[in-house]
Amino acid sequence: MGEPTPSDDARPPTGVLRVDADERVVGVDASFCRMFECAEGDVVGKSLEDLLSRRDRRSTQQFYQGLVRHREGVFDALVTLTLGGRDHHVRLRMLRTGGGWAASAEPAFTPGSLLFRMLEAQERWAAVFQASDEGIAILDGGGHILELNPRFHELMGFRSKHGIALSEGALIGRAIADPELLGDALERPPDGPGPSRTIVRGDHVVELRVGELTLPVRGVTGRWVVARDVTQRREIEELKIRQAQAHYAGMAEVATNVL
Hints:
single chain, alpha+beta, five-stranded antiparallel β-sheet, 31% helix, 30% strand
C-alpha cells in the first residue's frame, strides 16, 4: 500500500492574490473570497495599503519594513487585513513574479494551532516589550537594530548630524555603532565591575547592559541591549559622597581645634 495522501479537507485552506509592481491587487481567486467572506470587488483594484488594517499599525509597519529589505525567495509575513468590513489576521507568503507578486494567504488565527500559539506568545512579548520601564533594543548579528521599544528611543534621544531627532522607524536597520547613534560605547570595556556601561545622554545618565541573543539550534544570532535611567541613583550616590566628605572635614576641624 502506498503512503496515505491527505485529502483536500485536511490541507490548510489558502487563497491566492496577484499583486502588480505598484502593490495593487489585480486578481484574487474564489478560495480567498470564500475564506475571508468578502467579494472580489472588495479586493481587486485596491492597494495593499488600502487593505492593511489601520487598527494594527505595528504589523503594518513590520510588513513594509520587511518588504523593503526583502531581496529573494518567499517573503513571509503576518498582517491584519480589512476585508468585507472585518479585520482578519492573515499569513501572507509573497513571491516576486515578473513585475509583481503572487501571494498565498491563509488565516493566521486558528485556535489551538501552532501558529496561533506562536502569535499569542509574540503578542505577550510585544505587550511587555512596549510597556517596559527599561529601554530595550534587539540587534542582528551585524549590530543593526531590528527592534526597539519606546523607552529605549526616549532615553537615547538619537539625532542626525544636523540635529534632527530620529524617529523609531528611522532607526530600524541602522548600525548601533553608527557615530550618530552609540558609536563604540558598546565595544568599550565596562566602566567598573560587571558587564554594564554608563553613558550620558542629554540630561540622563544611562546604564547599558549588553548580552548575546542565543536561539536553539541556530546559536548566537545577535545581541540585546538594555538601557536603564540611573540619573537619580547617581545623584544620590554623589550626594552621599559629598555628605561623607563634609562629615570627615567637620571631624578634622574639630580634632584640629581640640589639639
